Amino acid sequence: MISRFYLENYLSFQKVDLEFEKGLIVFTGPSGAGKSILMDAFLALFGIKEAKADLSETTIEDSKISYEEFGIEKDDEIIIKELKKDKVRYFLNSQSISKKALTLFANNLVKHLHLKDNSDFDSIRLVRFLDRLSASNDSSFESVLKEYKESFSELTNISSQLKKINDDESKLEELKEFAKFEIEKIESINPKVDEYEELNEIKKRLAKKDKIEEAILMAKGIFEFRTSVSKALDTMDKDSSFFDETINELENIFENFSDSLSELEELDIEAVLDRIEKLSSLQKRFGSIKEAIEYKDQKQAELDSYDNISFEKTILEKKVKVLTTKVEELASKLSVYRNSSAKVLEEKVNYYLKYLYLSNAKIYLKDKQIDASGKDEVALDLNGVNLETISSGEFNRLRLALLTSISKFEILNNGILFLDEIDANLSGKESDAIATVLKELSKSYQIFAISHQPQLTAAANQHFFVDKQNGVSSVKILDAKGKIEEISRMISGENITKEAYEFAKNLVDSK
Predict the structure, then answer these.
(1) DSSP 211-276
(2) How far apart are CA 142 and CA 144, in angstroms?
(3) Whose CA is closest to 482, among 499, 505, 459?
(4) Helix (H, G, I), strand (E, B) or coil at 382
(5) Cα separations in angstroms, 511 against 254, 353, 430, 484
(6) CATH fold of the domain at 1-117+395-400+410-478
(7) Strands 374-382 and 88-92
(8) How far, in Å, are 55, 58, 460, 478 from residue 27 at the CA level?
(9) pLDDT tens digit string along 453-466?
(10) CB count in 10 Å sphere of residue 56
């Protein structure tokens, strides 16, 4: 339970310092005094609302919650602090904590209920609750749910692959023709790696053929002086072998080059140039001859896969059939668990409805198209009438019974419930019924509620009055006399009548 709450500089509140007891705690006061603002400040300390106060702090006792990461054990005093300067910072027992981690910590301790939010009847949310309830009641449920989710995910994946094959199959001939065209286009050229470079080298030599032949012819005269040079070196007693080797090597070079030039004469020049042009077109498109060959191999692999598509399709169809059967069986197993949990929840809801002058709520499962959550959709009705056609008063009381029941399962004993205008726009009888339920619930939980009706206010264990003077809000606890006077004001307005006072006194005494 929250034993203390402290606040500095939050909108119209300059400073608040309050101490609380167990049970039902009610805040009342004129419209615009700051009751909802104060409630938001509480909720901000648990990460449920945005923090706007310069400083806020709360002390929690007897929480029955442990948090090993922060060294918190059951029954330890817990202090949560929010500090806002350049940015908002949160502290748990003087240790810094993120808003996300704080919210996770508070999930099993705090619940915020407000009637303006009707999403509590949403089927997806209720299915998730039934799953949590099923898991807490039967340890085998989680393994079934895990297997279902894995199988459904696999089925979705394989079904997607099969759909792609079916889509490809419809345009298979077009894909085959394109792959064949691309392969034949490259194969008609039949390129070889490095061929383009080699042919370009031949092209260069062809361009220089006449100049090279003329140069060789002019240089051949050197060989006429071979004998004269050798004799001169011998006469000088110099070894002429180096000259003989050099002149022989030069002669070989000239002869080899002349032979290669003779071979060029046998080439079809037009064919070489045409080949170079075709290889050049491949280089321009693919970047290199190597990449062109790789592209051809890729298209061949695609063509082969198209030929195998019927075989792959048959395999995937068999897998889909097997997985569909498995998923349907697991979905039915989940339904068994959820049906059982729905009965437990229905029993608890009807337990609270009897205090709200209602009965015969039914919570049941309807089949829907199977999805990631299964095949179950949760539906509710009251005395055989669906939610769309019951009165607003019945709707609000049924919702309170549902929220109270869910909180009973999900929030620890000694947990904390925040109720925002839970009895707004209700009749006296409906307000009295809600007060009865919340009084019963406050035996297990500490409940903070904003009230506009005398019935719930009269049932409060602690009653706080919120007021605003000259733009500044304040809050104070009321004693027994002050409580009766405030309830009288709620009944008759600022000019309290004797009848209103007597009614308020009798109402408080009856609670």
Answers:
(1) HHHHHHHHHGGGGGGHHHHHHHHHHTT---HHHHHHHHHHHHHHHHHHHHHHHHHHS-HHHHHHHH
(2) 5
(3) 505
(4) strand
(5) 125, 19, 16, 12
(6) Rossmann fold (3.40.50)
(7) unpaired
(8) 21, 17, 9, 10
(9) 899 999 999 999 99
(10) 24
The token pair that represents 132 in the structure block: 């949590």
Residue 50 bridge partners (DSSP): none
**Which tens digit of pLDDT belongs to each residue from 468-510?**
999 999 999 999 999 999 999 998 888 888 889 999 999 988 8
Cα-based angle 357, 119, 458 (whole degrees, multiple of 5)? 40
CA nearest neighbour of 58 among 77, 86, 75, 30: 77
Six-digit token string for 232: 């001169």
Q: Which amino acid, one-letter code, is at 379?
A: A
Residue located via tokens 């309050």: 18
* Rounded Cα–Cα distance for residues 165 and 172 (Å): 9
User: Phi-psi category of 300—alpha, beta or left, where left has phi over 0 and alpha has psi -120 to 50?
Assistant: alpha
**Gyration radius of the chain over CA positions:** 45
Which band of pLDDT confidence, cut at 50, 70 and 90, is reported for residue 117?
A: low
Residue 105 pLDDT more than 90?
no
Q: C-alpha 151: how far from its chain's center?
A: 20
Report how far residue 48's alpha carbon sits from residue 323's, in angstroms, rounded to the nearest whole number.
41
Residue with tokens 């409580």: 483
**Bridge pairing between strands 95-97 and 88-92:** antiparallel
d(CA 496, CA 213): 129
404 Cβ neighbours under 8 A, 6+ residues apart: 352, 437, 441
pLDDT reported for residue 474: 95
Check if the beta carbon of residue 34 is closer than 8 Å to that of residue 466.
yes
| Domain extents in the chain | 1-117+395-400+410-478, 153-315
